[in-house]
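Format notes (please read before filing issues)

Several people have asked whether sequences and structure tokens are stored in separate files. They are not. Every record keeps both together, in the order shown below: the sequence lines, then the token lines. Line labels are part of the format and must not be stripped during preprocessing.
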Amino acid sequence: MKIDAEFYKRISKIGLENRWKKEHSKVRINNVISKEKVAINAYLCGDGWIAIREDKNKDMHYEIRVFLDNEALAKRVVNLFEKEFNISPKIVYYGGCFNVQIKNKPACLNLYSFGKYGHYKWAIPKELPKKHLIEWIKCFFDCEAYVNLSHKYIQVKSVNYLGLESIKQSLELLGIHSSLYGPYKPRIKKHSPYGMLFVRRKENINVYKKLINFYHPDKRDKLGKITY
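Then the structure lines:
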């Protein structure tokens, strides 16, 4: 009996599409700017990405990933997706990193409609109320900030200099002065220029600590140890 490979391929594709439709029907899409969506946006801008791609068979694939160095923080991101979209990403640990990942078309498209992503073009969503702006900075700093205990400063390094400028302006609105340097040319030519933002001095560190702080347990603990 001759096997019709194209027929079985088509049937398999239909079955897969039906399963995806069933999964997508569970997704909750809320166009209101929630605290959870702001947080997800910030974590994606800091250490994640959204991929929408077409394969050789013209099928579209939608994937979200966030890479974190702390398990408790990874579980927090999973909880954010559950609250916002009613979906549960899985956590895969490899290479010393907790990889939060999920393939979901409605969530991908909704997050893309909300903001920009990628190392070179991430941006703080426009016109956020103060409480959401604080949440965005807190979550982004969970990913990108380094707390120097001995010299008493918070540092953020990024190849997105315009993004750092927007963070500096946002911190000023919250009563926190920061310093921005660069862009610097790296020694390795193929690497991109980068900027460095610093929060220093007692008055700024104390306001940051009280108003924003971190969800990241290790960074929160280190910041708490900065005293004057």
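For reference, the curators noted about this record: The beta strands are 48-54, 60-68, 90-94, 97-102, 145-148, 153-158, 179-184, 194-199. The CA atoms of residues 49 and 195 lie 21 Å apart.
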